[in-house]
Design goal:
The chain is mostly beta strands and 253 residues long. GO terms for molecular function: hydrolase activity.
């Protein structure tokens, strides 16, 4: 079991995460600069689960080799080297102008989920978190490239996991991305093709999710690009925001 009673946060200087109320979380974030990721499982990204993102492909979805829109969730893994926490500096790879910032709802699994019925899917959720799913801008969507999506630090998570009981409707949450203090993306989880329960059911129909795993709902269409030196903030609903910054190889700590 992976249990979140309130808000789970893992401060950088502490060996174990803390479970506390949101007021205390905000107080701590006002005092500390960095956090570790609050999750310990595998992170699975989801592609083309945003209606506008799928529509933007137009007739390309009917081209060879697939000749049809995806019939099952399109998943990829964000390996352990990609995981980074609140306040981290993320390196923009050499030869790349900027990095695309995808803001997504992270669904944190609470107990082993295998062939879950859609009506019971939310019972397998421990909580939710903010995920900044980063990638080098590229065209391929059906075959996610490890070289573009699995760079060090390319999955920023946190600052906390919000217990499921605090989230009245995970399918109606605002997602905001700000770069250098300017709002560059406003989206809502309501635009997802598969909502949270349906996504869990469809994924667990062919693979088992373990306690502590994270399944992202998917990146909304129009993800902005951050440049070296930019400060980025990703916010979902009224949760504590996830902050990080972009740097070059020579500027990294």
């Amino acid at each position: 079991m992976f249990v979140v009673n309130d808000h789970l946060i893992h401060l950088e200087e502490e060996p174990m995460p803390r479970d506390m109320d949101v007021r205390r979380v905000r107080e701590l974030l006002a005092q500390v600069k960095t956090c570790r990721t609050p999750v310990d499982g595998t992170v699975y990204g989801t592609l083309l689960n945003d209606r506008a993102a799928l529509d933007a492909l137009g007739g390309a979805v009917n081209a060879p080799p697939y000749k049809a829109p995806p019939q099952a969730p399109v998943l990829y893994v964000k390996p352990r080297n990609t995981l980074a926490g609140h306040g981290t500096e993320i390196v923009v790879p050499d030869g790349v102008e900027g990095v695309q910032i995808g803001g997504s709802l992270g669904i944190v699994i609470g107990r082993t989920a295998c062939r879950v019925n859609v009506d019971e899917a939310l019972d397998f959720v421990a909580g939710y978190t903010v995920v900044a799913d980063l990638c080098v801008p590229h065209e391929s969507v059906y075959r996610p490239s490890v070289r573009f999506r699995a760079r060090d630090g390319f999955c920023v998570i946190g600052p906390a996991i919000v217990a499921r009981r605090h989230v009245a409707d995970a399918d109606a949450l605002n997602i905001e991305i700000s770069i250098e203090g300017k709002h560059t993306l406003h989206a809502n989880t309501a635009t997802s093709i598969r909502n949270v329960a349906r996504l869990i059911a469809d994924v667990t129909d062919f693979m088992t999710l373990a306690p502590g795993d994270v399944l992202t709902l998917g990146v909304p269409h129009g993800a902005p690009v951050a440049l070296p030196g930019d400060k980025v903030r990703v916010t979902i609903g009224d949760w504590a925001p996830l902050d990080f910054s972009m740097t070059t190889q020579g500027g990294a700590r």
